[in-house]
Amino acid sequence: MKQTIEKAITGVLQELEVANVPFTVEHPADIAHGDYASNVALIAAKQLGKNPREVAEEIVAKLEGFEVSIAGPGFINFNLPRDFFAQKVSESVEQKEQWGTHDALTGKTYFVEYTDPNPFKEFHIGHLFTNSVGESLSRLVQFAGADTKRLCYQGDVGMHVANAVWGMQQMSLTPESSFTARDLGKAYALGATAYKGEDEVVKTAIKALNKKIYERTDEEVNALYDKGREVSLAYFQTIYEMVGTDFDDYFFESEAGPKGKELVLDHPDTFVDGDGAKVFKGEEYGLHTRVFLNSEGLPTYEAKELALAKMKEDRLGASDHSIISTANEITEYFKVLKKAMSFVYPELEAKTEHIGHGTVRLTTGKMSSRTGDVIAAIDFVEEITDTAQARIKEATPELGEDRQLAQQIALGAIKYATLKGNILQDTVFDKEEALSFEGASGPYLQYTHARICSVLKKAAEAGVTPAAEVLPGQPYTIERLLYRFQEVAREAVEDRAPHKVAQYLTELAGAFNTFYAQEKIADATDSNASYKALVAQSVAQTLKNGLWLLGIEAPERM
RNA sequence: GCUCCCGUAGUUUAAUGGAUAAAACCUCGGUUUGCGGUACCGGAACUCCAGGUUCGACUCCUGGCGGGAGCACCA
To answer: Which segments of A32-96 does DSSP mark as H helices, in order?
Structure first.
């Protein structure tokens, strides 16, 4: 539709013999202004040396087949025909889960790497938030038609692991003993604190342990390490299932390490000596110099990441684009990494994109992953699930024991709070606000969806069948929003902006609730009831698909 | 000190250079016995400062001020 309008305007401009007018056609900020608006007259007026409103009138006189009006300083507003909306409403219901999908990335293969927790350490709320962002980005590219590969890169070697294994030894954990991921978290905290302390003997011991783990030279250490890794990864898997992420493949630092080292040594022109280490001179490109191999010859994050890019293609085949989504602490490193990669793997570098998102803070203060003083994602979700369940019990007693439902709502609250704003910015997670279940929140969207499911059931009982046979003369306001869903999905993926979906859904839900307050749907005596039911069904489908893009479930009752 | 990101109602967030800066929380005042009031309607309230570019600036440029992240062997 937008293209049709643009084409019509271009035609008129040719008639008026004006060229190179970079006009836009977009939705006006206020829906009352029309469905589309163009600033063409304002731009063209400059070239023509005329008053914008005058130019607008000339253009409008030549535009055929549209209901248009001139407003403000010279905007041309377009109102779409009634049938257009009815057709879109019908389409949305027919297309079901396909509604809103588009072809922006059809035929492309996209890798999306995210979450990236470290085995032996706690999976904390930071991982939960970064997972929400990555999962939504994955779903956005998938919705755009891309063959989407979800990837997870986990740091199973390095000093943090050495700290944890040292702690395991102190706690007398053995490969035969049964211990949990939580015990590992304690072990890590123990080791990390000890390493930071003054005791040089301990430091030396942990460093030696790190080397042993990396080289796998000590059977006893290997056994303890392997068991710890297994426990930790199994624990992560339960979390991925809980949040609804299904990774296609997992990569580990233990694999990337040796390959990274080899890669660095194979490119002596790119990675040069610096204080006994191998470094990349980022300064020559306005960046920082980074160490790729430390003075002990061990690969750093940067070297591993370099190898990882190649490993992904080796295992999953070639991609057209590779997204790596992390918190923005990594952003600067990644710039250097990309530069270095442009010498080693220029073709991979060209399609690698790092998306550094802001961090989420709790209203109670900042969390830290270094001190061991972290909030476990599991605990966080449990706590919010408890509150959600209490709320359900109050409102819908018969669903009060449904723990799974409570968890869906808790995750909806968390994910919405994470994705409601621009992901580049830091956000604050206010538990009370996210759980208020009112206004702009995940549960509000879920509630609206459930409410529609309920009213449609009532309508069916009353003998109202959703259909587009009898149409009210004027489209309902909500119809003017419904057809935009696909455009929103497209913009959101192009801008890497899940918040555009969140924002849209909130507006849609609000408009529906207004519609619902004004119009009775389950009333067979109303000649418009069938169409109203169809509109309601369309809203439910749109909410469901939109929530899916945010990684949020849409229960039918709550 | 240098680099990058960011400063919008009391609070949390929106706004491809466009119309009266938009929602939600909070607050104040209301809602037709009509389908889920976890809803709806209305009021009050905002662009850090100073310049510049533009018909038009929250948006772009310059300089301040304030916050976050990073600045060589952690990731």
So the answer is: 40-48, 52-62, 82-95
| Closest-lying nucleotide for A289 based on CA to C1' | B72
Positions of strand B less than 7 angstroms from a protein CB: 3-6, 11-16, 18-20, 22-26, 32, 34-36, 38-41, 55, 68-75
390-449 on A, CB < 7 Å from strand B: 391-392, 394-396, 420-422, 424-428, 430, 433, 436-441, 443-444, 447
Residues A534 and A474 both lie in one domain? yes
* Sequence-ordered list of residues with C-beta below 8 angstroms from that of A113, at least 6 positions apart, any chain: A134, A151, A152, A153, A312, A322, A323, A324, A325
Residue from A194, A538, A125, A518 nearest A359 by CA:
A125
How many structural domains does chain A have?
Answer: 3
Residues 79-138 of A with CB under 7 A from strand B: 118
What is the CATH number for A420? 1.10.730.10
Chain A 348-387 contacts with nucleic strand B (CB below 7 A) = 358-359, 366
**Do residues A537 and A456 lie in contact, with contact meaning Cβ atoms separated by under 8 Å?**
yes
Query: Each residue of A33-81: pLDDT tens digit?
Result: 889 999 888 888 877 777 788 888 888 888 877 888 888 778 899 999 9
Same domain, A338 and A389: no
Residue A348 lies in domain: 114-362
* pTM summary value: 0.94
How many angstroms separate the CA atoms of A274 and A235, rounded?
40
Instruction: Write down which residue in A362, A394, A420 finishes a domain.
Output: A362
Q: Please tell me whether residues A159 and A245 are part of one structural domain.
A: yes
Does residue A96 belong to any structural domain of this protein? no
d(Cα A509, Cα A444) in Å, to the nearest integer?
Answer: 8
